[in-house]
Amino acid sequence: MNRRAARILIASLVLTDAVMAALAFVLGYFLRLQSEYAEIAPFTHYLGMMLLHTAVVVTVFAFYRLYQRRRATSHIDEFYSIFGAASVATVIAIALIWLIYKNQLDYPRLMMVYTWLLTILLVWLGRIAHSRVQWWLQSKGYNESRLLIVGPGDVGRMILQKIRQSPGLGYRVVGFVEGNGTSPAAPAHVLGVPVLGHCDDLPKLIDEHGINEIIIAMPEASHQDILSIVARCEPARVTIRVFPDVFQIMASEVSIGELGGLPLLTIRDVALRGWKLAVKRATDIVGSAIGLVLLSPLMLLIALLIKLDSPGPVFYVQERMGLDAKPFKMLKFRSMRTDAEAETGPVWASPNDPRRTRLGALIRRFSLDELPQLINVLIGDMSLVGPRPERPVFVEQFKKSIPRYMDRHREKAGITGWAQINGLRGDTSITERTKYDLWYIENWSLLLDLKILVRTILRIFSDRQAY
Fold first, then answer.
1. To which H or E segment does residue 264 belong?
2. What is the pLDDT of residue 402?
3. Of the candidates 467, 428, 427, which has an alpha carbon nearest to the alpha carbon of residue 159?
4. Using CA atoms, how far apart are residues 450 and 223, in angstroms rounded to an integer?
5. Per-residue confidence at 152, pLDDT binned at 50, 70, 90?
6. Contacts for 380 with CB less than 8 Å, ≥ 6 apart
7. What tens digit of pLDDT does each residue of 432-464 get?
8. Element spanning 165, H or E
9. Residues 95, 97, 100, 105: what is their CA dihedral angle, to the nearest 10 degrees?
10. How far is the C-alpha of 184 from the C-alpha of 256, rounded, in Å?
11. What pLDDT score was predicted for residue 251?
12. Are 386 and 414 in contact (CB under 8 A)?
């Protein structure tokens, strides 16, 4: 990675934040000017306040480590961070302005509110624009980070595919490295990327290829093996990331309780209970009801087009496994021929699936066939967010080979989920999908649900795995 390029990107981000914070103050002044009839001082009198507000915002953002940006940062997560940091910065700026300009110049309360809200919004929009430019530059090779993946197995392949799907991240995968215990019969290439050697060769490979980052893609490796790999990389100044195993990706909180005076550590508490369950159900009812009302014209149009496009019913009703592994009837708009599985039996959908109707290909591309599941949510069979439900025949297969697969059914199935917004849908690893589902269950929060719903909407037009 070009350190000079990285410093330039950080400096440009600081400048972007400063410009947006200053613009928020200016707009706050003029909005206040338009909303009140009282005389206020000319804007030139407020220039000192504007500079102070801007300096405080940039300083607080630095303390919040918002200038240590990762290559892949969710805009929604960034909004949460900006909201908190900008709120703290506004309070500090108001206090400093009051101390410095006491009895000299008024700082109207309405102007404070406008400035606070506009700072959050404009800085966030500025960062989105900055990230778009940064991604474009990185896709062209600017600020490139050279990467090695340790572990040429399924997880390594998945990571490589993710990187290829997001060239704006600026990663260049130089090669794979065999991990400890890897079979000597490992292929010479994985998806066109060479396997350069064994983990014992890491110090030499890092030096020869100018490696900046290493991803250890061996989720089942022992802690000792991972520590051994990290130790080999220690002399070099490289960033090391580890793809977590099933246990590591689970509960992030440990609580202490007691049993008759004996201390016990709770490291896993899966099921939603009490007020959490009530909040999630209330959110489902309100969200599905609003969705059905707002989307009813679109759903009516799709139903009409399905009837005109091909013979058969409008809805496709399929049995899926939900809460506590109990079957329920899931609704979808019919997107395939009525005899789609007459010869093959239950099979996965595939890209360019010949069983799809002409309209079906379109509505599946944008996930519009899932809209009737809002009815399932309203009546309580499903939730807006949760593990995607599978058909009983597939559940029987997966529970025999995937550890903790049935734990997915401790919560209601969802229209969308943590796995889906992270690209694990369609013909992707069920094992990895299960890990994401279990992480979601054990880390549930209302904000996480809102984040998943927003990201689902944003992915509709860019998801290449919807077929």
1. strand 262-266
2. 84
3. 428
4. 35
5. confident
6. 281, 284, 412
7. 888 888 888 878 888 889 889 988 888 876 665
8. helix 154-165
9. -130
10. 45
11. 45
12. yes
| Cα–Cα distance, 152 to 179 (Å, whole number) | 8
pLDDT for residue 255 is more than 70? no
Q: In this structure, are residues 350 and 399 in contact, taking their beta carbons and an 8 Å threshold? A: no
Pull the structure tokens for residue 417.
């989920």
DSSP 336: B
CB 217 within 8 A of CB 159: yes
Strand partners, 320: 328
Any idea which of 38-52, 79-93, 234-248, 308-322 has the lowest mean pLDDT? 234-248
| Cβ atoms within 10 Å of 86's Cβ, excluding its own | 28
Domain residue ranges of the chain, discontinuous segments joined by +: 3-139, 145-242, 274-459
CATH among 3.40.50.300, 1.10.10.10, 3.40.50.20, 3.90.79.10 for 145-242? 3.40.50.20
Q: Give the whole-angstrom CA distance, residue 157 versus residue 172.
A: 14
The answer to whether 331 and 376 are in contact (CB under 8 A) is yes
Distances (CA, A) of 242 to 163, 230, 461: 15, 10, 31
The residue type found at 415 is: I
Q: Is the dihedral of CA 412, 413, 414, 416 positive or negative?
A: positive
**Which pair of structure tokens corresponds to residue 225?**
């093996």
User: 346-404, pLDDT tens digit by residue?
Assistant: 665 656 666 778 888 888 888 899 999 999 999 999 999 999 998 888 888 888 888 77
Amino acid code (one letter) for 204: K
User: How far, rounded to the nearest angstrom, does the alpha carbon of residue 92 sit from its chain's CA centroid?
Assistant: 31
Confidence of residue 140 (pLDDT cuts 50, 70, 90): confident
Q: DSSP letter at 356?
A: B
